[in-house]
């Protein structure tokens, strides 16, 4: 009986030490600032169809996607039943090439309209 108690205590202290180590590593990682990827921050020129929505000035890919979502939400183009789908209006149909696109397809399609 005493041997069982000793093993339980030993395993508890070992697991506490392991938890403390992982917490320390997580704190170190959280304290370090991440560098943004230069490829995402490079300004790209939108095509004429895309420029009708996001503007003609060169923008980073992240800003283009933000502006696309702002346009989609402003015009209530997100599907009511499946929120992952976007119902295209006339401007978006010229970009997407079809009436409904998933949000994951949208980023792929938009990247083809950036140079």
In short:
This protein has helices spanning 2-31, 38-41, 48-54, 61-74, 90-96, 103-112; strands at 85-87, 100-102. It is mainly α.
Task: Provide a descriptive summary of the structure in words.
The structure is a single chain. With 115 residues, this protein is mainly α. The protein has two domains: 1-34; 38-112, SWIB/MDM2 domain (MDM2, Orthogonal Bundle). It is built from six helices and two strands. It has helices at 2-31, 38-41, 48-54, 61-74, 90-96, 103-112, and strands at residues 85-87, 100-102. It has a two-stranded antiparallel ribbon with strand order 1-2. Helix 3 (48-54) packs across helix 5 (90-96). The termini are far apart. The model has no long low-confidence stretch (mean pLDDT 85).
Output mean pLDDT: 85
CATH class annotation of the largest domain: Mainly Alpha
What is the strand content?
5-15%
Global morphology: elongated
Q: What is the H/E string? A: HHHHEHEH
- Biggest sheet layout: 2 strands, antiparallel
SSE layout:
Elements: H1 2-31, H2 38-41, H3 48-54, H4 61-74, E1 85-87, H5 90-96, E2 100-102, H6 103-112
Antiparallel strand pairs: 1-2
What features would you highlight for this structure?
MDM2; elongated; two-stranded antiparallel sheet; mainly alpha; 2 domains; about 120 residues; 6 helices
């Amino acid at each position: 009986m005493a041997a069982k108690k000793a093993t339980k205590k030993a395993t508890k202290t070992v697991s506490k030490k392991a938890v403390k180590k992982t917490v320390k590593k997580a704190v170190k990682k959280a304290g370090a600032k991440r560098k943004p990827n230069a490829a995402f921050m490079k300004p790209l020129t939108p095509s004429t169809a895309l420029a009708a929505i996001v503007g003609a000035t060169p923008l980073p890919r992240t800003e283009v996607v933000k502006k696309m979502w702002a346009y989609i939400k402003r015009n209530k183009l997100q599907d009511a039943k499946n929120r992952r789908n976007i119902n295209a209006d006339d401007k978006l149909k010229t970009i997407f090439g079809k009436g409904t696109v998933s949000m994951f397809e949208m980023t792929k399609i938009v990247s083809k309209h950036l140079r």
